[in-house]
Write a structure and sequence with these properties.
Layout (H helix, E strand, L loop, with lengths): L1 H15 L9 E2 L9 E4 L15 E9 L5 E7 L7 E6 L8 E3 L8 E5 L7 E8 L9 E8 L12 E3 L9 E4 L17 E9 L5 E7 L5 E6 L6 E5 L8 E5 L7 E8 L10 E7 L17 E2 L10 E4 L15 E9 L5 E7 L5 E6 L6 E5 L9 E5 L7 E8 L8 E8 L8 H5 L2 E3 L6 E5 L5 E6 L5 E7 L3 E4 L6 E9 L2 E9 L2
Parallel strand pairs: 1-3, 10-12, 19-21
Antiparallel strand pairs: 2-9, 3-8, 4-7, 4-9, 5-6, 5-8, 11-18, 12-17, 13-16, 13-18, 14-15, 14-17, 20-27, 21-26, 22-25, 22-27, 23-24, 23-26, 28-29, 29-32, 30-31, 30-33, 33-34
């Protein structure tokens, strides 16, 4: 009778450890919730077939993948001091596809598997970290099909919209999220992370993440998926808000935020959080006359005593009026009250002005002037044969694509033509050299002529009556553009004079 009992006991032990080797692994069925299967390492041997992810006293299970991602949870029995190890293989004797040993004696191991092949059989090895088993070597195991968050990876990051009030506030969850290792930052990598992205609308931005009790959030920011982090935040504890401050952002660029739980060897007891991005965008206001359709009106006068102040600050380059090329342009308009007029644009030091005059928006220029090569030099456009009552458009632009100063003055001055006698006497007058450094020669004088040297602001510097060729000494005046007003019997003509030093 004793022999019979011993045989029965031996057969029972062999039956209990049918899964002692990979080839005889016990089948587990994945479910949507953890349906535990009880097991034990008591009496188990250490396999010599599947040696990767080493451990002692191992037993095997297998399951057929019915989802591309599963969680395997391995828990020692209550009051057991088992220090469990968990590894998964895609075939008996192959190298493991994942292995975990994060907890110590009595701890629960959870292995998150992703990118599984549906219908494929996977093998699980359960073992003990130590070469000695505790008195209670029982455990439970389950395989749960999981739906990963849609933003579980950086490539599928959820888009957030920055706002001044940090709204909308977007709800998020780390439930079933995997852990992604990106470029190391000064903060810990974290556990169970998800990703968000935003397009910067200001150089400085604040990311605000609010957690519930049971989750200790940490934030990392990246300029691209897998790229070098630009900042991280892990300044608060369980259930507290985490704020991530970002600066020196490039407006229009996309940035990525990783939200993770601080826990390394354990999972949070809560998974939900909210996130929003707060920023105050730089408001860039283009000038009202940035396009020809918004041209500012200028009233022609007999002098430039009160020129109009203009600016190229935040101006764009017109795509409508493209002829008479230049950059960062603005527009003005005037209604002709005389058949001849002079448009004068006097810029600040770092603008190389170009002046174009058009009869219609988008039309060909009737005058395009870029004669003064000096930065800050005035440009003067002399217009003849104007149609009184017709509106003309003026484009002021910069020769270069950028400028460190933006202001200029502009005026439209009628050239008086109240009489028609002796107009030929004016037309024959010659000025040379022009530009000049000191002396300006006035020649071909056929009749008494009044000569006035006028600054662009309308101030008269000298007045002379001449009846023959004359030399005007300009040596005491500053370099710049001046108007030389010539008058014969009430008929006036303005000439542009450039004084260089």
């Amino acid at each position: 009778m004793k022999k019979v009992l011993l045989l029965i006991s031996f057969l029972t032990t062999v039956s209990s450890f049918a899964q002692d080797e990979c080839s005889s692994a016990l089948t587990l069925t994945p479910a949507n919730t953890c349906q535990t299967t009880s097991g034990t390492l008591t009496g188990a041997t250490t396999t010599t077939i599947t040696t990767d992810c080493s451990g002692y006293f191992d037993v095997f299970y297998k399951f057929v993948a019915t989802a591309v991602a599963v969680d395997v949870t391995l828990a020692p029995a209550e009051n057991s001091s088992l220090d469990l190890k968990l590894s998964v293989f895609d075939a008996c004797g192959s190298f493991y596809i994942d292995c975990i040993d994060q907890t110590k004696s009595g701890g629960i191991e959870r292995l998150k598997l992703k990118e599984l092949t549906l219908g494929t059989t996977y093998y699980i090895k359960v073992s003990n970290y130590l070469a000695m088993l505790p008195a209670n070597s029982d455990f439970t195991i389950c395989v749960v099909n999981v739906l990963r968050p849609i933003n579980d990876e950086c490539a599928t990051a959820t888009l957030l919209t920055p706002s001044i009030t940090c709204s909308p506030v977007v709800s998020g969850s780390l439930l079933n999220a995997t852990t992604t290792v990106l470029t190391t930052s000064s903060c810990a990598n974290g556990n169970s992370d998800v990703f968000y992205k935003f397009v910067a609308n200001a150089p400085t931005t604040t990311v605000v993440a609010t957690a519930g009790v049971g989750i200790d959030l940490m934030l990392n920011a990246y300029s691209e998926c897998g790229g070098t982090y630009i900042n991280c935040a892990d300044n608060t504890s369980d259930g507290e808000n985490e704020l991530l401050y970002l600066s020196d952002l490039i407006v229009g660029e996309t940035y990525y935020i990783k939200v993770a739980d601080y826990g390394i060897s354990f999972l949070p007891t809560s998974f939900d959080f909210t996130i929003c991005i707060s920023s105050t965008p730089n408001v860039v206001t283009t000038p009202m006359n940035d396009e020809c359709s918004g041209a500012i009106s200028i009233t022609p006068t007999t002098t430039c005593a009160n020129p109009v102040l203009g600016t190229l600050a935040n101006a764009t380059t017109s795509t409508i009026t493209t002829q008479c090329p230049g950059f960062l342009d603005v527009f003005y308009k005037f209604t002709a009250t005389a058949s001849s007029a002079t448009v004068t644009a006097a810029p600040s030091d770092n603008i190389d002005a170009i002046v174009g005059v058009f009869s219609t928006c988008g039309g060909a220029p009737i005058q395009c002037v870029d004669e003064n090569p000096l930065m800050g030099g005035a440009e003067v456009a002399t217009l003849n044969n104007l149609s009184i009552g017709t509106t003309y458009f003026i484009k002021v632009s910069n020769y270069y694509t950028s400028t460190t100063s933006n202001t200029f003055t502009i005026c439209v001055q009628n050239n008086t033509t109240t009489a028609t006698t002796n107009t030929s006497a004016l037309s024959t007058i010659q000025l040379f050299p022009n530009p000049t450094q000191n002396v300006l020669n006035v020649s071909n004088i056929t009749t008494s002529t009044r000569v006035e040297l006028i600054e662009l602001n309308g101030k008269t510097l000298l007045t002379e009556m001449i009846s023959s060729e004359t030399q005007l000494d300009l040596g005491n005046y500053s370099a710049g553009v001046y108007i030389l007003k010539l008058t014969v019997d009430g008929v006036t003509e303005n000439r542009r004079v450039v004084l260089s030093k």
